[in-house]
Specification:
The protein is α/β, with parallel strands linked by helices. The protein has a domain of 119 residues: Periplasmic binding protein-like II (D-Maltodextrin-Binding Protein, domain 2). The protein is built from twelve helices and eleven strands. The strands form two sheets. Strands 7-6-8-5-9-11 form a six-stranded mixed beta sheet, with helices on one face. A five-stranded mixed beta sheet has the order 2-1-3-10-4. Helix 2 runs antiparallel to helix 10, helix 6 packs across helix 11 and helix 8 crosses helix 10.
Amino acid sequence: MKRRKFLKAAALGTTGTVLAAPMVNAQNAKTMTIVSTWPRDFPGLGTSAQRLAERITELSQGAIQTEYFAAGERVGAFDSFDEVSSGNSQAYCAAEYYWVGKHPGFAYFTTVPFGMTAAEWNAWVKFGGGQDLWDKLSGEFGLKGLACGNTGSQAGGWFNKEINSVDDLNGLKMRIPGLGGSVMTKLGVSTVSLPGGQIYENLVSGAIDATEWVGPYNDFFMKLYEAAEYYYTGGMHEPGPALSIGLNASWWSSLTDWERAIITAAANEENAAQWDEANALNGQYLQRLVDDHGVKVREFDDDTWDAFGDAAAEVYEETREHSPLAAEINDEFQSKLREIGGFMANFEVKFTTQRNRVLGLD
């Protein structure tokens, strides 16, 4: 009995140490400036980042006061990396594959062609060694990355003409970033990487013929249907794209264990929330795109998928040749993809395939 009482008391004491907030006043509160690659109040990506910023302040009971700046309000969307790496701001909210110009390894910490789904990627990062590799890469640029969102499998994109074969891709101008863009380049597509706030105007003006963005929920509010009527279902390029909060490494190291735990907890919470939100809303917004705006939903044929696969294999080999770290990240990723993905294929996928067949969901 005494031993049980002692263990209970010890546990409560430990919990109290971890969860107890410091005495906060205006003088000892820390300011955390967050810059974003997303437009303000943009449904899905933008609102998720804003929700995360608010949650950090809320969870810390004011000990960490966040200042949030949407794309263009403090720096341009693609200037966020240098803004935080230099220490001018403490964090960014972005997709890591925006930084492949800095190092191609960053792509694996958002998504890569024929890569991991959201569930697989989270498993790899949290329990399969992915975070260690992410830390190794980000540390070379004075950063620390944490997962803070996922949109799930993304649409293959918006096109102003039907893609009936891989030949129809040749000569198109398309907005598509990351290694997915490299795959499309090998198939004759002229690719560009544009921040979200510039996609609509470029598509409407004809500066680009096609674009990928996210999925029905996010895409609905971009009004991309006004410029492209063909919408392709799940693409090869982003099977489970993660979003990140990238923190200045020196600032992160200056925080107490409690402050780092607060930021990590808020990021983990939003990582789940954004994915749940996308899954909850994508179905109804896909229906609205079709019913309200006459969008024509299509899928790529098997020959086009095979061409994607051949091009992706070339891109992976070229990525490995960049540097020893790029090769290490790719090889570890591919190994875990086969381990985790193999299990998912034999359990989750087999179940959903048969469920969809029985219930007529496909």
